[in-house]
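quick one before i forget lol
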Amino acid sequence: MAFIKFSTQDYPLAERLEVSQDIYAAIANIDATIPRGQVPHIETRIRLLPGISIALVECSPLVVRRQSRQLQDGNDDFSLLLNPAGKHNWSTTMEGLGEVECAPGSGCFGFNDRPGEIRFNGTRTHILNISFSRALLGPLVAEIERTSRSPLLSQEPFNHLVQCAVALTQGDEHSDNSIMEDANRLLDLATLAVGTNRDREMLARQRGLREARMKAVKADLMAHAWRGDLSLSWVAKRHGISPGYVRAMFEREGGSFTDYLLGLRLQRVFDRLRNPVHLNRSVADIAYDAGFNNLSWFYRAFKRHFALTPTQVRELAVVECTS
């Protein structure tokens, strides 16, 4: 899974205008116009998957265009142009779709085989460009090509799509299996965000949206598992789904919400018992801090999970540190 990174910060100040108009423009296959007298700032991270490319860009004011010369590359991909973060809007004009202004948290649909431009006016504006080959996305969104305006994007799939795509631009290595899983997830979320036929929507919801929701719920638990008041209902409300849906997602993986949360809390206690930084803290204090409120139950669960008592884990850690 190829990864490409470009930053004007890697070049001397005097060269940044030239590299933006030459090197960056060549990578993105666009023309770049920078306001007179300004030194451009461009940060780009590009991830290439089978049939899909993801480009996350942060930039200072500029205008990028795809015109006759760039259109000769034969690229007829569909693109989702998303504004994922920050406080600045950008606007795009494309043949057949007119002008669309995208505030943070919104986006629009684009066609790489049509001339168009994007205007970035803010000091640090973000755009997330997810391009799908026509063979992948074309059969699913055929109606869009016959319309004269970009479709409104469905908010929940949009949010999951942004999270998934941005994570893939971070440069981490992925296995061949996870590459295909990521590609399928992006395709599912894109079709749900844009809208598709009923059969495809059902498949996308069963696969892409469910996986994205599960990933988001687990990430939320990783951040908040230590709250003593955390509950199934609390998590469900935060993600706009029912408690039964959350419970069913974990059951499909062969476990349960309760067991997953317990595992996170027990692992936190285990790690701290082995950490010399927490050597002077009592086991009870560490357990309460991890979200447990019943010590008797905690001790039983810890022994069952690790086949050792908390005291034994701490003693072994002390021996390891002194040997």
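fyi The chain has two domains: 3-224, 229-323.
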